[in-house]
Amino acid sequence: MSSCSDEAIPGQPIVLGCGQLCLDYLVTVPSFPIPDQKIRSTSFKVQGGGNTGNSLTCVARLGLPSRILAKVADDSHGRFMVEELESSGVDTSFCMNAKDGASHFNYAIVDNQTNTRTCIFTPGYPPLLPDDLTESLLLDVLDGVRVLYVNGRSREAELLLAQKAHSKNISILINAEKKRAGLDELLDLADYAICSTNFPQVWTESPSSPSALLSMLIRLPKLKFVIITLGEHGCVMLERCSSEVSGSEEETDIDELHESLKQSTDFTSVLPVCNSSLVTKLAGNVTGRLVIVTAEKILPSEIIDTTGAGDAFTGALLYGLCTNMATEEMLTFASRVAACCCRGLGARTTLPFRTDPNLATFLGA
């Protein structure tokens, strides 16, 4: 395997991710087959996958130290996935081997006609468990870490790790894709949340996406911001602000604020744009601002595969949090990184390095 061409920036804080590693079998087809049909693929690739590994690979390519805590099977698939992460600059020294385990793997069929993908996941075993995490291991794995990334797939172990991180004042970012057992406890500890399109409404039972974001800030007082990702339509962030507003100021209706912000956002721009509301009183003692970010418009001929675009977005946010990027810069940067990911087959093939000219505006590369 080729090695990473960009070294981690010396002295920079570490991003730690905890989660499952998965092997992706990726195939592109002219159009999705109908039952009993036999077709030819147009391309094929085997690549490491999984939210955590993908996001940490993104962080490493951007030049920050990244570290993974996971359990992998001691089989050829497991060894391949660890070696691939190492070649990208991810610290795998806290990956545990399960001698009698089996690796997670995933079949991904990419439809060239509709630019969609269909995934078939086969879970492996055994999972990472709290018993695997000794006190000394927790202290070692968190040493030097600025941000911990979790997603709830190894919920009991992630919760133990998050509790220790919280006690050491390490920020926690959670990727909330869908309701999972034990996810609420992780959300309670999170400083930042990135959510799938439907998660906030499902979790809060709110009537709209904007009201669901507000409900999350109300229910999770530690949360500094929550983002809902919208694929080709960009993302929306609700950020908690400490700025004081007039005590007599009336509460702003979040749905009306969102609609007004949409009307003033340039959705025709090819490159991502960020549009933010003023800081306003939203509900009770919650003060904040709403931010809309458009996605980069990619020519249909350039879109190869959207697998992992959300993980690339997350990785760029992790980078932005660790390097103290301003909110608007961080969000547009993440949108550009996610767009780079869509131009190759698989979640990691076209993840950019920090020297990528598309990122020069942000990184001075």
Automatic annotation (TrEMBL):
Residues 21-240, 298-352 form the Carbohydrate kinase PfkB domain. It comes from Arabidopsis thaliana x Arabidopsis arenosa. InterPro entries: Carboh/pur_kinase_PfkB_CS (IPR002173), Ketohexokinase-related (IPR052562), PfkB_dom (IPR011611). This is Ribokinase-like. One of its GO terms (molecular function) is kinase activity. Pfam families: PfkB. The lineage of its organism: Eukaryota, Viridiplantae, Streptophyta, Embryophyta, Tracheophyta.
